[in-house]
Design goal:
- The chain contains six helices and no strands.
Length: 123
């Protein structure tokens, strides 16, 4: 059996003699990664709300929804990674898989675009 082709985490989980220990370690690693990613996301300020001419609570709600709904399935992208136009298409495309309504999708969109990339991407 050639173990070079196996993912180290998979091997650890599947072949560990103490399954409970390996599950706890894996869960902790996932939790740490999720915490580190959510910490990198900006926390909306009154200046962001004023600049976008929206209520600060809307931005805060958008951040919470983004972390909870989008981060539960995949890595969260920083808001400045995409432009407003790109975020609009992404949020629309992901709304159904994330099982969020129009109000929630709009809150996420407002949060992401408050600090979105200023120059439109040509990709």
């Amino acid at each position: 059996m050639n173990l070079k082709n196996y993912n180290a985490v998979y091997y650890f989980l599947m072949y560990s003699k103490n399954k409970l220990y390996s599950f706890i370690v894996f869960t902790c690693l996932v939790g740490i990664l999720a915490y580190r990613c959510s910490g990198a996301l900006y926390v909306p300020t009154a200046l962001d709300a004023e600049r976008e001419n929206i209520i600060l609570d809307s931005l805060i709600l958008g951040r919470e929804l983004y972390i909870r709904n989008c981060g539960s399935c995949h890595t969260l992208y920083l808001p400045d990674r995409y432009s407003k136009t790109e975020w609009k298409a992404i949020v629309k495309r992901m709304q159904k898989p994330a099982k969020i309504n129009d109000v929630q999708a709009n809150a996420i969109y407002l949060y992401l675009t408050a600090r979105a990339k200023k120059i439109e991407s040509k990709n």
